[in-house]
TrEMBL record, chain A:
Gene Ontology CC entries for this record: membrane
Keywords linked to the UniProt accession: Electron transport, Heme, Iron, Membrane, Metal-binding, Respiratory chain, Transmembrane, Transmembrane helix, Transport
GO molecular function per UniProt: cytochrome-c oxidase activity; heme binding
The protein, known as: Cytochrome c oxidase subunit I
Membrane-traversing stretches: 45-67, 94-124, 136-159, 190-216, 228-256, 298-314, 326-348, 354-378, 390-413, 425-451, 463-491, 511-533
Domain Cytochrome oxidase subunit I profile per the UniProt entry, residue ranges: 28-596
From TrEMBL, chain B:
Primary location class: membrane
UniProt xrefs under InterPro entries: CcO_II, CcO_II-like_C, Cupredoxin, Cyt_c_oxidase_su2_TM_dom, Cyt_c_oxidase_su2_TM_sf
Record domain Cytochrome oxidase subunit II transmembrane region profile: where: 67-162
UniProt keywords, alphabetically: Copper, Electron transport, Membrane, Metal-binding, Respiratory chain, Translocase, Transmembrane, Transmembrane helix, Transport
The protein's name: Cytochrome c oxidase subunit 2
Cofactor entry: Cu cation
Amino acid sequence: MSSTDIAIHQTDMHHGHDEHEHHHEQNFIEKYIFSQDHKVIAKQYLFAGIIWAFIGGFLSILFRLQLGWPEATFTFLEPILGKWVLNGKLDPEFYLALVTMHGTIMVFFVLTAGLSGTFSNFLIPLQIGARDMASGFMNMLSFWIFFIASVLMFISLFIETGPAAGGWTVYPPLSALPQAIQGSAAGMTLWLISMALFIVSQLLGGVNYITTVINLRTRGMSMTKLPLTIWSFTLTAVLGLLAFPVLLSAALLLIFDRSFGTSFFLSDIYIAGEALSNTGGSAILFQHLFWFLGHPEVYIVILPAFGLVSEVIATNARKPIFGYRAMIGSMLGIAVLSFVVWAHHMFVTGMNPFLGSVFMFLTLIIAVPSAVKVFNWIATLWRGNIRFTVAMLFAIGFVSLFISGGLTGIILGNSALDIQLHDTYFVVAHFHLVMGAAAFFGMFCGVYHWFPKMFGRMMDEKLGFVHFWLTFIAVYLVFMPMHYVGIAGFPRRYYNWTGFEAFNIFTDLNTFISIAAILGFLAQFIFLFNFIYSIFKGRRATENPWHSNTLEWTTPINPGHGNWPGEIPAVYRWPYDYSKPGAEEDFIPQHIPFSQTQSSNLPQERVLE
Amino acid sequence: MITIAIGISILLLLVVLFQLFRIGTLASIFRGSSQKAVGTTKTSNKVNSTLLLLFLLIGGAAFAWSFVSAWDDMNQPLASVHGEWTDDLFWTTMIVIGIVFVITQILLFWYSYKYQHEDNKRAYYYPHNNKLEIVWTMIPAVVMALLVFAGWQTWTKITSAAPADAVVVEVMGKQFNWMVRYPGPDGKLGVTKTSLIDATNEFGIDFSDPNSHDDIVNPLEIHVPKGRPVLFKIRSRDVIHSVFLPHFRQKMDAVPGMPTKFWFVPTKTTYEMQSETGNPEFKYELACTEICGRGHFAMRYVVVVDEPEDYEAWLEKQQAFATQNPDYVAKFQAAAQQPVTENAAVAAE
């Protein structure tokens, strides 16, 4: 039992240093714009993430129109897209720019910044019992550097040569040579600068998260009493801290190749009627550097969702999360393994086949901790007393999507099978389910669950249910059929497939996928309405609306700067004492000492009374 | 006018929806359901848990139906020896993950339905069970070990060195088409240099290398013989491309500055495949699968598998580049008279 391993002081001691509720009056700018309050910064990340998600989603609708109706003319898009639509036809390079920016925006700006940025910032101090982050100033810098990165990326959408268009993985030489594709001109420069700033912002945030969790836990909050959310955010931050600098180095080398005539990634190139002088570089080197970040990145996206979902499932199943330690262990395992599997993205690059076998072996090991997590979630539901809040529905949806998308990873991680499936729609379906849609579900789950703590009001449940069901159905309708298209070998990033007899099938299916995608996108406006409306007009929240155990629900409904008006509560037990036999209520919050719960204490907890 | 009408009706629709939403909210306050702890109202729990169960049943059935009806389309005709191994391994793995998929999804949705909230019920306090956890860690570990082993064996066989008697075809990617070169009767490809590329000599073949004189460049289609190993030597001269032969289950990136290769044994001629699929137009195709720019989606080349004797006959008919462009090659030989040592060094590479 995790709640027995440290000595608990029985008397309430006073913290010496936490009596600083006295704050000077903050003006509007200090309070809402250049705020150092972690809760405000979290909301800033959330708003930015939501805006980016709608932009990213809209881009995907544009290219789904092209894929669903390859023969159609899109003159009605001319008012928005201008010269990118010529005689009703989408420009093929613009199509590539769309998929590139969709990927970049979703992976980095929504599911990294929007997810970690929001929930790590919001929940770490609140759940570990701290007044704020270790460095509020760095935290503020982190957001505003992210903001500048966002502005640059946004500007790149509107420049004449278009945004980066070489795929979100920006492999050189395509991304290095403006002769090869227009998007590699100014668009790519902006992309690289924006990403460099983005990385700086992530590092500032990550250092802060880790420091805060290690140093600022309240009295009694040992590492084995942390909610799984905090474990997941911490591991996410560690991954980011180790992986993002490698991407920065790759980006810098690419900047050198593009602008200063070096040949890190370029060699033996003849393009646009001339032979380039670059020699000796390796295009594959970039892929190694990129995926050394790129693979941990997918876990940076999914780990916070693991944490949020675990917390929501335990709370709403009214049961302790099954196998708390196994959950931590599996996250640790996944985090470590995520650094040694990157080359499974490169099985067919001409890499030494022996390396391929090593990476196949390491990749398939990840299935084990992932499976443990799924089993534990399902075991948590077993014999629960499940409350179907909207957050809970999204959590269940998350597990379902994670299973569906995760299992095909076993196929793609197998180098022999990857030969046929690499860069086909099978891959697209796989990662959209397992890290795209699933991470979005984790994010929705978090927003619906912690909305009352963020804004002091509840989101409307019925609208939430409608949003969930439309989204859940749309996600499956979009991505399940994509597997068929992928098994048939349809390559991704194709403007259309009609030039090939082998791929000139499944036209109806692609139209079907596009319709489902459009409906799924429209359903998100229900969320947007609910979100904005509820901030101002939602039903007022109670202090602990979900009857949850974690510390954030002991703060006032609208916590001020410093979170707790009085002293920070001490922690006595793990966060998962739900439905404990003998207890009066079906939950015992973490700050309730064992002396007050004698009727429900387990034999080994008697000594702590 | 019509646009305005559409705009107004959409606006009205939104207003109606908003009013419905308000009515719903007010009604729930009158019913008193907003007084209960969140997530414990009977109707919404009943509705959502039932919907979850229905989703499992209807969704599962729809998935099974669509899978079966897409079956013929998703299985591209197969025409290589190793393709049978990978197809077998693929469907075996699909069955394994399919079983896990079905079991876990059923449990997930069934438990969600079965253990929905009831007012006078308590959940079962069950924080962990080490034995159970060890068991369900070991099972996937063992299954993974078996899959890794099977994958590793297949992968090693596929990526092993090509037999010495393999038919060699060089495939070079460029924006936005493929260039193909056969080594000719001597079986050796001539040396190439990026700096020698021009509009005529798109490979940059160095014709001072005698091996290049019988090289056949850019035939209309790639011809390969049935039943013999075929080695593709792959490279690119600008950005990364990827050679993908869907019917032969073969793929390899074409990387500038780093030649790559794969080999395979075709098992069915184009003609045989045409009668087998009942499609007299059937053609083996080569596609690009690494994003390479504007024309990425249109890099197509046709591959023809012949009976070995037909292949030899076809090869006989092909003219070497040097034969077709004697003037161009002559320039080289004139220039090559002087710097002999340099060229020898390159050829030795």
